[in-house]
């Protein structure tokens, strides 16, 4: 795992020493991603330079250093990530006459590109990666991002230079970088609480979309749009899976899922540094931990984090699972003061506006794990691929049933649901708790009822999904003089053919929410402390199988992640993991009314909002006052504004 950066200067008006100095500065800006070593490569004749920061995981010797040149001298590569099946690829390449001077996967990737070409080599690679590649023969620069978007990669023209890097900080270190905030993208961020690919917060800078290869001729003029080609597509995988569904029994589905996940876990245990696994005690992390322990000859290291706040602590559940599996378990209880200390560091850690508040515990558990290990496996991806979110269980039915009700009646019912605030509804459900059926005892019932009202009023599938996952709405006018760009979410005509709205939600989550929010959160939080995270449930072979499973094997009988649960129950008693889905969150709503109030008030001050020029103060101040009064819980909307304001302050804005 590493950090990469580089640039192409079409003017070619500086020497190699200057190119190397700039490449080094860009790499040093993301030194946290690779604290073990640094190097750069430059070619003044073509105006190209690569920078690299190394977190050594496989082959710790200098033979694994980057940037690396292929044995035949044709290619230069700077690479972030891991290709887990490199031993098998190496054996195949050795049989074809290739020789290797070291033991790294990087050298194998380069040899594979020499032997098969870039696209064909990528098709053989199992792993996560962001790659920059210079081809001396075709005189082209290529950038690559892995299939699911586990590793980040920014690129774009700024100040007449084409630049790229793992994080925006690398680009900002280039003296030609021009930092102009993209107001339209800011409006999109306010809808989604993150900046979705291919957009970035800065004008002219983009994120490479998952599963893509970018190609730019070395003689390209300033501003030339690079060619982008997909080498793998989750949308196509979903469509193929729906067209040719798995036809076996429930037991056979669990058998195949277990074998694929076991292989993915075993592959991700190859490392020359200590490794462990995050364990929350939920279905996904418990499955990964169970199979990791199953293939390990010694107790694996598991890590969980606990909080004193009621309703936010999973540490006891994780501890029980760890005890059953016999892992070497470490847990850390964090008080509110420690968690709040992290808040001031979030703009630096995430480098771009990002407002998923679970970023705080994700950073804290990464920081704890890094004291003992350098690599950690994670259960991310299980919800999106195997049907884990609560909305997968109920939205489709409500949408279909409400469509049969005349519009005026739907509006009356929706108005009745929203006549009480979510907080008031929560109080009502708490009072009725002893007499309510079990299926009606849900966390945050008030928010769910308000979302249900939104579904009943929605004008179609796209609007329903936006209402479920969105924060601010397009019509709120929160960002001045801005129109958010449309994404796949707003273009249902471009969605793949899938049997149900639930599967459409899973697909949209997989191509938007997963890479733009979940994986971004894990990457930034872990790499901020030099910890590599590996996600076996997003092995593309697991993903491709998961998309063949019919919905009955994911959410059948109103049970989320049915197949994944069946795998886990073979290793962990169901009573240890059967509980309502909690999520990885903190009581931000209470903190904003308490210990974080002064910090928030400063960032949300009307004068500051007005002078900043980005937000309309009225809607923000209204939600802030309603939140402080306790009438509404606007934590998500307010966190969006606060994270941008804090980030902007860090930019000197």
Give an overview in words:
- It is a single chain.
- This protein has 653 residues and is α+β, with helices and mostly antiparallel strands.
- 45% of the residues lie in helices and 14% in strands.
- Helix 8 packs across helix 23, helix 15 (391-403) packs antiparallel against helix 20 (501-527) and helix 17 (422-432) packs across helix 18 (445-457).
- The strands form 3 sheets. Strands 2-3-1-9-8-10 form a 6-stranded antiparallel sheet. Strands 4-5-6-7-11-12 form a 6-stranded antiparallel sheet, covered by helices on one side. Strands 15-14-13-16-17 form a 5-stranded parallel sheet, sandwiched between helices.
- A hairpin with a 4-residue loop joins strand 6 (127-135) and strand 7 (140-145).
What key phrases describe this protein's structure?
17 strands, 14% strand, 6-stranded antiparallel β-sheet, alpha+beta, globular
